[in-house]
From TrEMBL:
GO terms for molecular function: acyltransferase activity, transferring groups other than amino-acyl groups. This is GNAT family N-acetyltransferase. The lineage of its organism: Bacteria, Pseudomonadati, Pseudomonadota, Alphaproteobacteria, Sphingomonadales. Residues 11-173 form the N-acetyltransferase domain. Keywords: Transferase. Pfam families: Acetyltransf_3 (PF13302). Signal peptide: none annotated.
Length: 181
């Protein structure tokens, strides 16, 4: 599937592109970005694998991540989207699409996260994806607040890679119980 392009007042969400590797390698090497997402810098190689995973999600499961661009400048602001991550979390949420977001540090505090997540969830809702989850580091108060604004409710204290994490879930509005994906 070709990722749809989503447009908001200030952002464009577009499919992942291998040409964006330098921007994402810089983002994932920034301590202000990775501090709450993995706790360590990602190498260029690991970031390349992430870009390939983002591209592959669209091809294999029909949803995935978008690259977030600021419309005014064209500058990459981060990524947002859905994943079939099959994480080894306790409790498990396998089979439920996982929403994730990460912003370049220059984009923090500007409302881009909420704008991008709302656009991605609007697309997911329109596709009939009845329920999504997200996991967030307990210290990441900004993402916990954003998740709450987007309708996510904390459903469990979880463990991922031997570290505590919080599991949140969101039901799509006006989705009948039979419409699930």
């Amino acid at each position: 599937m070709t990722p749809p392009v989503l447009t908001t007042a200030r952002l464009t969400l577009e499919g992942p592109d291998p040409a964006d590797l330098p921007d994402f390698a810089a983002m994932w090497a920034d301590p202000l970005v990775y501090a709450m997402i993995g706790g360590r810098a990602f190498t260029r190689e690991e970031t390349w694998h992430r870009v390939l995973r983002h591209i592959g999600h669209w091809q294999v499961v029909g949803y995935g991540n978008w690259t977030i661009r600021e419309r005014a400048s064209g500058r990459i602001a981060g990524s947002v989207g859905l994943m079939d991550s099959r994480r080894d979390t306790v409790p498990s949420f396998e089979g439920t699409p996982e929403m994730g977001w990460a912003l370049c540090s220059w984009a923090h505090g500007r409302g881009f996260g909420g704008e991008a997540v709302a656009a991605a969830l609007g697309w997911a809702d329109a596709q009939g994806i009845a329920r999504t989850v997200c996991i967030i580091d307990p210290a990441n108060t900004a993402s916990i607040g954003l998740a709450g604004k987007m309708g996510y409710v904390r459903v469990a204290d979880a463990t991922y890679r031997d570290a505590p994490t919080l599991l949140f879930a969101r039901a799509a509005p006006d989705v009948s119980p039979s419409a699930s994906r």
